[in-house]
């Protein structure tokens, strides 16, 4: 396996960390194999990026036979669209280096958690397309081929996780036009990619209504979606195991521990290049 880390310059002078975990091909198996890739975007309310939703997720994806990348994007005091442009650049890099990294360029999934789910879904929807184009990106070229959204921040409306939008927008946090742009259930379009999404019903931080609004919008546009709602557990569970529990104790939730395997099966059904 190859590992690398590089920086992505933010437009405000900050820098994001972009890490890659590339599975080597073998002459004994399939020397020309191209694998799906998963770009992991951890959450943290646009104020930090969580360790618990970064490398443990990447390692799980590697175990499934997917290349994995992690984006630790710029957070407050950086404001929109700094993180969006960093995510776009990460997607561009994966596709530009697809041959070198043995990536199937048509099977790149962005995996976002909480506020990272908002950033991931911002790439998959169209609200930021004009901003991407303004900064030299072809929105279609950096749009993922699929999305894995875990307890995502979606809506800026009544069920909003207000802290995420306050951190993302700063002085513009009450700007109706910006809030409309960033309420992603309103930005779903026919080009939005197939989506796997999960949430816990009792989540008292980011209400499950965020996921339900997004699922409704996906269905209205005919976008394939698989959704799993779990009956117990709070917010930010990551894998729901001791590996990702807060201080090794809080956040162990047996019922959600199945989601990675459900996601792997979704990948098998969605992308031909998955290892079977």
Automatic annotation (TrEMBL):
Which keywords are on file for this protein? Hydrolase
Q: What is this protein called?
A: Alpha/beta hydrolase
UniProt domain BD-FAE-like: residue ranges: 34-217
Query: What InterPro entries does the entry give?
Result: AB_hydrolase_fold, BD-FAE-like_dom, GDXG_lipolytic_enzyme
Q: Does the keyword ATP-binding apply?
A: no
Molecular function GO terms recorded: hydrolase activity
């Amino acid at each position: 396996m190859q590992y690398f880390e590089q920086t992505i310059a933010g437009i405000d002078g900050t820098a994001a960390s972009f890490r890659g975990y590339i599975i080597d091909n073998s002459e004994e198996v399939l020397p020309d194999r191209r694998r799906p890739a998963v770009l992991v975007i951890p959450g943290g309310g646009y104020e930090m990026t969580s360790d618990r939703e970064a490398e443990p997720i990447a390692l799980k994806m590697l175990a499934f036979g997917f290349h994995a990348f992690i984006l630790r994007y710029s957070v407050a005091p950086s404001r929109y669209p700094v993180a969006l442009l960093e995510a776009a650049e990460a997607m561009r890099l994966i596709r530009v280096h697809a041959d070198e990294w043995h990536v199937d360029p048509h099977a790149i999934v962005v995996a976002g958690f909480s506020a990272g789910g908002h950033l991931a879904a911002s790439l998959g929807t169209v609200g930021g397309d004009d901003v991407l184009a303004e900064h030299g990106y072809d929105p279609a070229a950096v749009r993922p081929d699929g999305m894995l959204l875990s307890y995502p921040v979606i809506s800026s409306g009544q069920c909003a996780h207000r802290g995420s939008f306050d951190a993302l927008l700063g002085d513009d946090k009450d700007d109706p036009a910006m809030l409309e742009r960033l309420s992603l259930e309103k930005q779903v379009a026919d080009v939005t990619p197939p989506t796997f999404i999960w949430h816990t019903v009792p989540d008292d931080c980011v209400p499950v209504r965020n996921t339900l609004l997004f699922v409704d919008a996906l269905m209205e546009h005919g976008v394939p979606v698989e959704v799993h709602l779990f009956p117990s557990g709070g917010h930010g569970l990551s894998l729901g195991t001791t590996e990702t529990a807060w201080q090794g104790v809080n956040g162990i939730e047996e019922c959600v521990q199945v989601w990675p395997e459900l996601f792997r099966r979704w990948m098998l059904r969605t992308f031909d290049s998955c290892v079977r």
